[in-house]
Structure formats: C-alpha cells, structure tokens
C-alpha cells in the first residue's frame, strides 16, 4: 500500500539559525503553529531556487525589477533608483490579518464620518470634540470645500494606512494617508516580481491574491459615475513626481488613461480630456496631486499642474474625484490625539487598531507634559509642515538631542505650541529578510490599503507592502537610504485550494472584447510625435559623425579625403545645434567628440538621448521593459579624442537606436499611437534629407559627396544591387528623392505621412480632408509626378519649408485644441 509522503516541515538551515530573541517580538518567531510552516516553506523555496539558478536570489529578483521597470527616487534626488525588494516575503496568518482588516474598515468608517462633519455640519467643533485650530491650522484644510459635498457617494474611495507591530504582537496605526495612496502600485509590483521569480511558491503557501482588490477599487470609483461605461483617468503631477513610475504602472494595469492637468479642460461644467479625436468626457479622476494644486482658480493660483474650473465640475456633480478635495486634512499627526474620543463620539465603539499615543501641544496641559517628558517621546510637526527645531520637518527623538538642540526645540515649542506633537516611541517587531543569502532580522512597518468596492463597501487588500529598515529606526514613512521593501503575504491556514483557485489572479471582471488602444490624449500624441523626431534626429546626427570620423581613419570611407565634403558636414552639425561655431574649428576628432557628448548643445547626441529619455518617461505606460533597458543605458564610454574610440561609440549608438526602432515597430499596435510615433520619424527624416542634399549641393557631382549621401541614407547596398557602377548623380538623386520603394527616400517619407494622417480620426462629420492631410498630399504630389531632372535647389528648399509648415499644422490640429473659449460644435465627438 502506497502512503503519501508528508511534507518536510523541518526548518531549513537558514531559518534554524535565525538570530532573534523571542522576547524582542519577531514575526517569524512569534508565528502561530499553523503559520510557521509557511515561513519555512518560503525559506526552503528561496534557498532551493538559489541552488538551482546558481546565483543569489537577490540577483534573480533584481532582474525581474528591471523587467518590470520598477524604480523610485529618494527625496531630493533627480535620478531614479531600482526598487529595492527583499526576496523573503513578510508572512501574516489569515486569523491575525482578519483582526487588522476589521480595524482598518472601522477606521475607514470613522474617517469618512469625520471629514463629512468637518466640511459639512461642523458639529464636532461646535460641541467641543475638536478644537477649531486643529482644523484651521492644517495646511491641507480646504476652506473652499466647506459646504461642498460629493453629489452622490463618499468623500474617501481609497486610502493607505501605516501600521506597526509591537513586541507583543499588537498592531497599531502610525498614520493615515488620504491624500495619496502611495505604495499601492509598489505592492502590486512586489507581488508580480516575487511571483515571477518563485513560480508557484506563493500558491503552494496559500498566499491570498491581491488582484481582486484592484478590481474592487476600479468598481468602487466607477459606481459613482453617471454612465454605464465610465471613463476613469489617473491624474498625475507628471514625470518629475517621485512616485510617477508607480502611477504609470497603476494606470497601465487598471486600464486608466494617465493624464496631466494640461490634458484636461472643463466646458459647461463637464470635464474633458483633449484627444486627437477631439474632447472626450471624463467621468472620474483618481487624483495623485494635492488639493491645493487641483484648480488654480479656486485653490492655489500658483499651481501649474491643475485643471482650471475643475471645482465647478465637482460642485455640479458631473465628475467623481477619488479622493474628494480636502480629505487630507485628517493626515495631520495632531488628529491622532483625538481619534480615541472620535471613535466613541461618532461610532460608539472602541478602536480595534489603536493609534500610536499622541499629545497635541496646542492644549496647555498636553504642552507641559510633552516638554517635561521630552526624553521619552518623539517630537513631530503637528500638521506635517517644516517647523523650527525639527530639521527638514522630520520627527525627532527627544533623547537624541544635545543640550543646545534641546534648548532650541523647547523654546520653539513654547513660542508656537500648536505646531508640535509628542508621540510615544514605538518599538517595532522584526521580520526575516534575506540579505546576501542569509536570513537576518529587520524592523518593519506595513502599509495597508483600503478601498470601496462596486457595492460601496470597504475592502482591504490582503497584504500590502512592508518597509524594512536598515537602521532599526523609522522616523519617516518614506523609503530611505538602505531601506528595502518586502511583499506582504496573507496566508490561509486551511488547505482549501479549491476556493483559493477561484480567486482571480488578474482583474476579475472579464471585459467585453474590443480592439484598439482607447483614447489618445493630445499631450501623449505630442510626446509620441516628438519622441519619434528625437530618435530620428539622434540617428541622423550619429550617421553624420560616423561619416566625418570615417573619412579621417578609413581609406575607403565615403567622404574620402575631400575636405569640402567634410567641411559641409561639420557646418551641417553646426546648423543642427550639435556643435558650436568654436567647436567646429577644432580638430575633427575633438569636434566629433563634442557633437557626441556636449550636452550644453541642444542638438548634440548626448542632449538628444537625454531628450529621448525625458520624453519616454512621459510615455512610461506605453513602452515595454525591453525598451526601457535599452533606452536607459548611458552613452558609451569615450576615452579622449581618439577617432577609433569615437567611431566605435558612434556605431554602438546606431545599433542601439536600431534596436529601439525595432522594438517600437514590433510592439506598437497599429493605431493612433503608432501613427504619431512614425509621423515624427518620417517628418524628421525628410527634413534632414532635404537639408543634407542642400548642404552638399556644391559637391553633388563628386564621388565623395554621393557616397556620403548613400551612407547617411543607409542606401549603399540598394544602390549597388541596382546599379553595377560607381555612384552617379542622377541615379543617386532618384533613389534618395523619388523612389517610393526606398524606405529612406523623400517620396517614401511623404507617402508614409499621407498614410498616417489619413488614418487619424477627424473632428467633423463632413468627411472632408483636414489641413494636415491636404498639406501632406501637396508635398507628395511633385515627388510622385516629376522626374529627377526637374528637381533643383529651389524645389528642394520649397519641400523643406512645406515639411516644417506641416509640423506646425499637425501640432495645431492635434496637440493644441479645444481651449475653454471654444464651445463644442454640433456633431463633435463629445463621448
């Protein structure tokens, strides 16, 4: 008789030697008997993965982070860093998490009731339960929102909560984040990265999936909209925001258009997004910008990222906003001092998840107590703003102050006590983290997430993301130097695999079959258009540099030893802004190195690659991870001015640009995005060809000039296959100007422009061609009807000017439309 082998639940060596005192409070050491096996299974799985792959598990996770494009920026830094993720998840049993869930839902109910009262009846202040200064003193109190409530639905749709687990296993709330649910995207990305690395390990551990939460979140926002299939957009402050990568990933995952304030406009108290097909109605926004920045006409007039007149649309109830303006007033640490009382007053309940004990110095007795107990407490700004005595507005442990700092802080607190809070110093539990293939304890906090579902009920993500401290102290909730994150896995202790398998691993509601890429906002079209232009401009400049360098070190180089041809190419780079006049007279190698790397010149290759990366950041939700890896590489190393080194760098850049072009061609579906991307490339290629031909016109009959033209247009092989003779003027010009089969010819670019523009949506219903299409056809006409003998410099200059005019017409038609002063014409596509 065959007996099924029992699973080996013996702790692996890594966890068996885990150095933690049980009394200190560790999540693994304190795990319940039915949860500990999940820890051991995770540890064994990771160590087995290391043995199988032959590399550290951290390296495997790092590869997935690169593939997913996971990155973040520390406060004050411009460059992004790879997201730091521990391979070892933080594991919480389902029973323990159920208590956390109940506490979070209870807290969400309370916060909704408090914010409703603050901007509504104001009874909490009138009845003495809240001091008026607690509300009015907050920089996040939105006075304009008093009396303005959501037409239907709640103030809060989604928010984040920072949790700490104490030495005895008790969970407490460190703070609420109602303004922005930062970290919700990283929680999703952590799970995706860990799942890809570990295969079925999380399923074997019976870890609950998080995808249903995002489906619920989307349904909760859609519930408040006034249409059956509402359009929900994610409002971002832009690519310079610290959490922009997270926002882009969320928008892509949820299927929300990623928009900035300048993409949106309000007309007749309704919100629209500017698209290439005209204005399209937006029913809801998930905002990732502060209330003060939402509407410069109502809140802060200095805001350049908001939407003028958005307040009127909110007041009318024609748009849903998650979350409602002003809810962030509850984020102030000073509010934590009153939360226990509010639970009793508004809910008649005791808090399931208590706050960290807090004392607001805006009350005389509390101020005296905090000053007397300074060494026992953490001192924090009461309203989150920078205050005297607390550098950079960060909390500070009183016991860590020297004599002068202590005196300075106490004096500041005496002058303006309302600006300060005292909070108990929290001792954090630890959790195993896998560092250099060794399990070590790290202090942690957990950011949990709560959202309303399609029924309007609160739901809690079964997990979240943990922040593991490198120092053992956490005075801020932001990721700091040396900190790492970890996935939070809630594990079921019953082997009910059937019910677990029924839980969706992707967004649950199967959408109706459709084709196309949805709307294309005007700004996104603009960025795609210029992304294509920057790529083509960079490639053309590198080809010119290669031609100039090759002439100096290769016997059979196209430019040969004709100094006039080389001089014209250098002048061309000056006209393109790749070189300054002073750099142009330097030796060839030095001039070429400057054209490659001098970012002070806007047309240099270095500056163009910076523009490519900057523009790509605005399109982060549209590009693949393979594309990101190539686009993010730095310029090749260029040691000195040696021509051979520079030539190798130029060739590597051409290969890199070719790889990017191939990825874009293969991964962009045929649609408006692809049209604008390729339109930019075709227009830039056509303009550059006209300018190059005109620059070399005086040398056009020389073999060197003809060879350069063929090289720059990558048409040497085509010419040699067609003409078994040396380059001759008329055949070369015909190939480069008029041959519609040559993808580098002027005629091919014009045909492509006509084709792309004709495929774009029109604004009117009369089916008449619009200005961009008429102009593109006018450019194509002589190229398809005149022989090469009819072309001269004047005709070439005319085509160049028409191409530049076409660029302006495309911008006017597709990128700068539907200003507020315009009223939607009858028949325009207001969908």
From TrEMBL:
Start and end of every DUF403 domain? 520-815
Superkingdom of the organism of origin: Bacteria
Using the record's annotation, list all stretches that form the Circularly permuted ATP-grasp type domain.
Answer: 89-468
Entries under InterPro entries matching the protein? ATP-dep_Glu-Cys_Ligase-2, CP_ATPgrasp_2, DUF403
Q: Tell me the Pfam families matching this sequence.
A: Alpha-E (PF04168), CP_ATPgrasp_2 (PF14403)
Q: Which Gene3D superfamilies match?
A: 3.40.50.11290
Q: What PANTHER family is this protein classified in?
A: BLR2978 PROTEIN, BLR5612 PROTEIN
What is the protein name for this chain?
A: Circularly permuted type 2 ATP-grasp protein
């Amino acid at each position: 008789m065959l007996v099924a082998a029992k699973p080996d639940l013996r702790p692996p060596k890594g966890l068996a030697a885990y150095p933690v005192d049980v009394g200190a409070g560790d999540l693994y050491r304190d795990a319940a008997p039915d949860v500990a096996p999940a820890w051991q299974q995770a540890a064994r799985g990771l160590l087995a993965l290391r043995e199988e792959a032959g590399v550290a598990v951290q390296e495997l996770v790092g590869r997935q982070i690169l593939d997913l494009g996971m990155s973040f920026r520390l406060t004050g830094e411009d460059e992004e860093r790879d997201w730091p993720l521990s391979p070892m998840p933080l594991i919480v049993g389902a029973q323990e998490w159920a208590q956390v869930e109940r506490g979070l839902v209870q807290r969400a109910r309370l916060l909704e009731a408090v914010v409703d009262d603050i901007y509504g009846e104001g009874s909490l202040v009138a009845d003495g339960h809240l001091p008026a200064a607690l509300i009015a003193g907050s920089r996040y109190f939105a006075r304009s929102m008093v009396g303005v409530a959501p037409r239907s639905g709640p103030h809060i749709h989604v928010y984040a909560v920072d949790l700490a687990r104490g030495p005895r296993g008790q969970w407490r709330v460190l703070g609420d984040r109602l303004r922005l649910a930062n970290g919700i995207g990283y929680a999703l990305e952590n799970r995706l990265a860990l799942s890809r690395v570990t295969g079925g390990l999380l399923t074997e551990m019976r870890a609950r999936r998080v995808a249903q939460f995002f489906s619920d979140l989307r349904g909760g926002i859609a519930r408040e909209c006034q249409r059956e299939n509402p359009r929900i957009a994610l409002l971002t402050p832009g690519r310079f925001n610290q959490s922009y990568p997270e926002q882009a990933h969320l928008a892509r995952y949820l299927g929300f258009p990623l928009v900035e304030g300048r993409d949106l406009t309000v007309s007749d108290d309704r919100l629209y997004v500017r698209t290439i097909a005209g204005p399209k109605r937006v029913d809801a926004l998930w905002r990732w910008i502060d209330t003060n920045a939402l509407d410069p006409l109502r809140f802060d007039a200095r805001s350049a990222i908001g939407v003028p007149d958005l307040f009127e649309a909110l007041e009318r109830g024609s748009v849903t906003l998650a979350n409602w303006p002003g809810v962030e007033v509850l984020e102030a640490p000073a509010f934590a001092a009153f939360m226990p009382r509010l639970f009793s007053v508004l809910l008649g309940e005791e808090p399931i998840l208590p706050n960290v004990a807090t004392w607001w110095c805006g009350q005389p007795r509390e101020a005296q107590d905090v000053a007397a107990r300074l060494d026992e407490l953490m001192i924090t700004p009461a309203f989150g703003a920078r205050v005297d005595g607390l550098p950079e507005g960060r909390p500070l442990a009183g016991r860590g102050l020297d004599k002068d700092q202590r005196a300075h802080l106490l004096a500041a607190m005496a002058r303006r006590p309302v600006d300060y809070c005292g909070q108990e110093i929290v001792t954090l539990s630890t959790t195993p983290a896998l560092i250099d293939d060794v399990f070590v304890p790290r202090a942690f906090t957990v950011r949990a997430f709560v959202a309303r579902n399609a029924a309007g009920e609160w739901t809690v993500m079964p997990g979240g993301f943990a922040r593991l401290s490198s120092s053992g102290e956490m005075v801020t909730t932001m990721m700091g130097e040396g900190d790492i994150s970890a996935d939070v896995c809630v594990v079921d202790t019953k082997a009910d695999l059937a019910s677990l398998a029924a839980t969706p691993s992707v967004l649950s509601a199967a959408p109706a079959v459709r084709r196309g890429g949805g709307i294309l906002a005007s700004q996104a079209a603009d960025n795609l258009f210029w992304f294509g232009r920057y790529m083509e401009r960079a490639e053309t400049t590198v080809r010119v540099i290669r031609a100039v360098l090759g002439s100096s070190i290769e016997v059979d180089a196209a430019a040969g030893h004709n100094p006039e041809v080389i001089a014209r190419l250098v002048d061309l780079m000056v006209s393109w802004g790749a070189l300054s006049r002073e750099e142009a007279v330097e030796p060839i190698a030095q001039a070429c190195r400057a054209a490659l790397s001098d970012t002070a010149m806007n047309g240099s290759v270095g500056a163009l690659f910076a523009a490519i990366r900057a523009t790509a950041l605005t399109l982060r939700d549209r590009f693949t991870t393979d594309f990101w890896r190539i686009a993010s590489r730095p310029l090749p190393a260029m040691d000195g001015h040696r021509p051979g080194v520079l030539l190798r760098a130029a060739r590597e850049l051409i290969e890199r640009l070719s790889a990017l072009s191939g990825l874009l061609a293969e991964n962009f579906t045929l649609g408006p995005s692809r049209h604008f991307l390729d339109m930019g490339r075709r227009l830039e290629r056509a303009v550059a060809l006209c300018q190059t031909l005109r620059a070399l016109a005086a040398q056009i009959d020389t073999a060197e000039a003809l060879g350069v033209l063929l090289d720059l247009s990558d048409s040497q092989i085509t010419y040699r296959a067609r003409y078994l003779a040396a380059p001759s003027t008329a055949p070369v010009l015909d190939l480069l100007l008029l041959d519609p089969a040559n993808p580098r010819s002027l005629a091919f670019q014009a045909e492509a422009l006509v084709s792309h523009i004709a495929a774009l949506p029109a604004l009117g219903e009369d089916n008449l061609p619009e200005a961009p299409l008429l102009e593109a056809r006018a450019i194509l006409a002589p190229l398809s009807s005149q022989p090469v003998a009819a072309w001269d410099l004047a005709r070439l200059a005319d085509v160049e000017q028409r191409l530049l005019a076409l660029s302006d017409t495309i911008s006017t038609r597709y990128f700068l439309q539907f200003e507020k002063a315009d009223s939607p014409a009858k028949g325009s596509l207001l969908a």
